[in-house]
């Protein structure tokens, strides 16, 4: 579908995949995610970036092994976030999070593959006011070998520009969750990578939920917006 529309890369989403399997976000295990990544990589001839959550491991040795498995699944990039992976709430402190990025970087390098490492600081999703804290982590991630820096939750022109300036020359990835800034706007701010996370999945589920509610009320009017069967068949026959 993405190639049909002219996109040049594709990314997985932890929430979108989890929902498609009937689970909440973070409710899918490593082996299922690896099978999903392998299937995506085999189905497309575009670069695939993996949302690899926190690497599905707390211990550093296991983290390295899991990153290697993700690379072997055929991804062109993967992200490691600072959300704790030991069952405790919250995020790793800067020192621990940085060490985890170093381990992921070393594991990628040992494979010999040219795979991009995206390092994520998640705190702004909980508290958007903690911009300085997120930037401090991103700067440390850059020094630890991350190729791209990502703090989902940053929004607003001034905050985005501040983050971009702080980590130059490393590229910043921005998560789009609102329509008030365009691709051109973000490019003007210096953003070099854009993600929509689970938003496409949420949009699809929103349409399905609205249709289900209409059906429950006795109406099938929502079917008017459905994509034609032939169009979808033609797309997947050509690019699937």
Question: Which secondary structure elements does this structure contain, and how are they paired or packed?
Answer:
Layout: E1 10-11, H1 14-20, H2 30-43, E2 48-51, H3 60-72, E3 77-81, H4 94-111, E4 116-120, H5 123-126, H6 131-143, E5 148-150, H7 157-167, E6 172-175, H8 183-188, E7 193-195, H9 199-216, H10 229-239
Helix pairs in contact: 1-9, 3-4, 4-6, 6-7
Mean pLDDT: 94
Low-confidence stretches: none
Overall domain count: 2
Q: Please estimate the helix content.
A: 40-55%
Strand proportion: 5-15%
Cα radius of gyration in angstroms: 19 Å
Question: What is the CATH class name of the largest domain?
Answer: Alpha Beta
- In the CATH hierarchy, the third-tier topology of the largest domain is known as TIM Barrel
Order of helices and strands: EHHEHEHEHHEHEHEHH
The CATH architecture of the largest domain = Alpha-Beta Barrel
Largest sheet: 7 strands, parallel
> How many β strands by DSSP?
7
What is the H level of CATH, i.e. the homologous superfamily of the largest domain?
Answer: Phosphoenolpyruvate-binding domains
The tally of helices reads 10
Q: Spatial order of the strands in the main sheet?
A: 1-2-3-4-5-6-7
Distance between the termini: 8 Å
User: What would you call the shape?
Assistant: globular
Structural class: alpha/beta
What does the model show?
- The N and C termini lie close together (8 Å).
- The protein is globular and about 55 Å long.
- It has a 7-stranded parallel β-sheet with strand order 1-2-3-4-5-6-7.
- It has helices at 14-20, 30-43, 60-72, 94-111, 123-126, 131-143, 157-167, 183-188, 199-216, 229-239, and strands at residues 10-11, 48-51, 77-81, 116-120, 148-150, 172-175, 193-195.
- Helices cover 48% and strands 11% of the residues.
- Helix 3 (60-72) crosses helix 4 (94-111), helix 4 (94-111) packs parallel to helix 6 and helix 6 packs parallel to helix 7 (157-167).
- The chain has 2 domains: 10-197, TIM Barrel, CATH 3.20.20.60; 199-240, no CATH class.
- With 240 residues, it is an alpha/beta fold.
């Amino acid at each position: 579908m993405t190639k049909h529309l002219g996109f040049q890369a594709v990314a997985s989403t932890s929430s979108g995949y989890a929902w498609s399997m009937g689970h909440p976000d973070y409710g899918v295990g490593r082996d299922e995610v690896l099978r999903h990544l392998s299937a995506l990589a085999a189905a497309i001839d575009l670069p695939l970036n993996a949302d690899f959550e926190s690497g599905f491991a707390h211990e550093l040795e296991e983290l390295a092994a899991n990153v290697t498995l993700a690379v072997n699944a055929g991804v062109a990039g993967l992200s490691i976030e600072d959300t704790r992976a030991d069952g405790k709430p919250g995020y790793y402190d800067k020192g621990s999070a940085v060490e985890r990025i170093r381990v992921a970087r070393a594991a990628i390098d040992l494979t010999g593959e040219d795979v991009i490492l995206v390092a994520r600081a998640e705190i702004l999703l909980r508290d958007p006011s903690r911009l300085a804290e997120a930037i401090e982590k991103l700067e440390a991630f850059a020094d630890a070998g991350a190729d791209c820096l990502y703090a989902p939750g940053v929004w607003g022109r001034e905050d985005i520009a501040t983050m971009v300036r702080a980590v130059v020359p490393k590229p910043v990835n921005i998560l789009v969750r609102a329509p008030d800034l365009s691709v051109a706007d973000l490019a003007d701010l210096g953003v070099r990578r854009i993600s929509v996370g689970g938003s496409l999945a949420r949009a699809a589920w929103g349409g399905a939920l609205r249709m289900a509610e209409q059906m429950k009320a006795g109406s099938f009017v929502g079917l008017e917006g459905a994509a034609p069967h032939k169009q979808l068949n033609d797309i997947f026959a050509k690019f699937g």
